[in-house]
Design brief:
Layout: E1 3-12, E2 20-30, E3 35-39, H1 46-50, E4 61-66, E5 69-70, H2 78-84, E6 85-88, H3 101-111, H4 116-129, H5 146-158, E7 164-168, H6 176-193, E8 196-201, H7 204-210, E9 213-218, E10 221-226, H8 228-232, H9 235-240, H10 247-257, H11 269-283
Parallel strand pairs: 3-8, 3-9, 6-7, 7-8
Antiparallel strand pairs: 1-2, 1-4, 4-5, 9-10
């Protein structure tokens, strides 16, 4: 599926002393099967923006199109959109509420009208896809580790068979191992199922390793929208708005200043290593 936002504005508490514009003339298109990262400092509008993608929030002005259809037109099926654009909130374990893991994951399919057997089939497949062991299926989800809770929450969305998966800071509060496991899972789902991914994050290392496109937000506006390499070329500008490039970017910049003919557009360790080894060979160094 494709999603397109045209001149989208959103104002909180309109007409009150607390009025605040969170989104300002947002133009954004997410193509079918893309892996897009949305980054920016706290309060820049990232979470507000993604809640527009499945109609949880309605734009104050502007339009949003799903496969060319305006989601604000009379008669548009918002309920269907919300099943096809799955939103996993920050700290998704707060979305868990059923007495067992399997019942929690079955809730979405049953809410769509599937019977018990059909819903269970969808839930079992989703739990398998996210790597939750069978021994946890009849346990209360609240007894699981943070990483396992995230997996169950993601499974609950996957059981709805979304065409686009939106994850708002899915690794918040996890240790490095848990973070890597969740991001690797999301990457695998993208490759195996071909669904669109929108990943909200403040970690440049994360987005550099997984996303093919980065959208940078600042004060409710889109600052950059490009490939990771092109975005991180603006590392000095990113620092001015409270962000930073991946560590690899800084290392390659320093090597360049020291006379190495390295690729300053490298955004991952693998790319950096390839560039450094190529420079060693070119210079005839041992």
């Amino acid at each position: 599926m494709s999603l397109k936002l045209e001149k989208v504005n959103y104002v909180y508490s309109t007409g009150t002393a607390y009025e605040r514009q969170a989104l300002k003339d947002i133009d954004l298109e997410i193509a079918d099967g893309e892996f897009v990262a949305l980054i920016g400092h706290t309060g820049c509008g990232k979470s507000t923006l993604v809640q527009h993608l499945n109609g949880l929030l309605k734009a104050t002005s502007g339009a949003i199109y799903e496969n060319g259809k305006n989601i604000y037109e009379d008669g548009y099926d918002l309920r269907s959109l919300r099943s096809r654009v799955g939103l996993v909130f920050q700290y998704p374990e707060y979305q868990l509420f059923e007495e067992t893991v399997i019942k929690d994951v079955m809730f979405g399919p049953k809410n769509r009208g599937l019977n018990e057997e059909q819903a269970r089939e969808k839930a079992l497949l989703a739990l398998k896809q996210v790597g939750v062991d069978e021994k946890y299926f009849e346990q209360a989800p609240f007894e699981l580790s943070g990483g396992q809770k995230r997996r169950v929450a993601i499974a609950g969305i996957l059981a709805m068979e979304p065409e686009c998966l939106v994850l708002d800071e899915p690794t918040a509060g996890l240790d490095p191992r848990g973070r890597d496991e969740i991001l690797s899972l999301v990457s695998r789902l993208h490759k195996e199922r071909g669904i669109s991914i929108v990943l909200v994050s403040h970690s440049m290392e994360d987005v550099a390793n997984y996303a093919s496109r980065i959208v940078v937000m600042d004060h409710g506006k889109i600052m950059y929208d490009d490939t990771p390499a092109a975005v991180f070329e603006h590392w000095e500008e990113l620092e001015k708005v409270g962000l930073s490039a991946p560590q690899v970017t800084y290392v390659m910049q320093l090597l360049k200043k020291d006379g190495w003919d390295t690729d300053t557009g490298a955004t991952t360790i693998r790319e950096a290593l390839k560039s450094i080894l190529a420079e060693y060979e070119r210079a005839g160094k041992p």
